[in-house]
Amino acid sequence: ATTAPRIEHARINAGFPEVDRNDPATARRLSDHDPLVVYLTPNGFLPVDIAIDKVVNGDPVIAGTQIDYTIEVENFGPQVALNSVWSDTLPAGTRFVSLSSVAGWTCTTPAVGATGTVSCSNPSVAVGSSVFTLVISVDANVAAGSVVSNNASVGTGSPDTNPMNNSSTAQFTVVAESDMAITLTDAPDPVTAGTNLSYTATVTNGGPSDATGVTITLPVPADTSFVSGSVSGGGSCSGAPVVCTVSGSIAPMGSRTATITLLVSASAANGSSISATASVATASIDNNGANDSASTSTLVAADANLDLSLSASALEVLINEPVTFTAVSLNLGPSDAQNLSITMTLTPDFRYTAHTAIGATCTTPQVGTSGSVTCTWAGATAPNVSRTLQVVAYSNNQGATAVNASTVSDTSDPVTANNVGNVSVQVGFAVEAIPTMNAYGLILLGLMLGLIGFVAVRRNS
What we know:
This protein has 1 helix and 35 strands. By secondary structure, the protein is mainly beta. A hairpin with a 7-residue loop joins strand 31 (about 360-365) and strand 32 (about 370-380).
């Protein structure tokens, strides 16, 4: 459109009062067809200067939160701007929340939570300014350090003397902030010494941003050792202290779980407790450190399954012949057996002679008498370790004689049926041996008997 004034031809109202043509104080005409040249500038042909200015309020912005822009559309005049439109396409990683209404403007927007373009139109923008507030949300997964730029532009159907101010760009920087929390549970509780103890550490992101670079750390408590670890949704666990790395990111209100398995030492004392503390950390800013660690305590119980075997050096012996009885107590675990002892009971038919029990303290009957031999190994007998008691005895009575043995410890035994044993020994008198001859002796004996028979026959004849 041209900005130069247009030349129009106009008629003077025929009813205008007639005056002298040469009178300078009044309009002049002689008839209603007297031509008059005038200069007219119709509305819409006069140039205007319309501008837009966009300002972001609050920079930097936390991912997962909202931010608002102030958008000002200004008509610097000198008259109304016709058919004006401003628009703003939301940048990637953002979503529409709201737009304030301004009189005279009609706006279309994306749905709340959607992306798209905001557009407002006004058929006649008066001289002055129109101020809008545009609120958007920043996606929780926008990376920290990202710079988000947004441009708004305005146009008008009127001639615009300064198109250089018809667009405006605002930008902000994104930071990530999350509230990580952790809980810690144990199983089983109580745990038996010599068995596995599992910890479940659950971390939750309270938002508002995605949490990246999340790690879970659990120092290995005393009397335990690391066995294995896993992370739900991907990750790995290793080391001492145990560090579990969570792969990927955790969205706001999302959670991940690390399962850490430790082996409780077989020597862990019955009635003691194992205390563990797990903590969570993230590469994002954590806005609440008070919930970044959790602890739990587990009671320890001890069980030692002792298995006894009893044998004799001979199951048939002569009266007064020494027999060696061997009792072996094997700790099948899973815990250490504290102060293990073996008792061997000699029936009245067997008399004690001697014993062997390496490392043990023993009580015995007097030599040559019956009774019980009890030997105790002070301290711990580890799983799969055995203790041995050997007793030498003899019997001076004929018949079958049984010897019994049993084993116990200060540690609870879950299976007592295998704590006892017995063995029976047959005792008898010596039997005289029958003389035997070799082949030559038998021949000689036969000849002698034949000769004796021959002599006897001659005498009788």
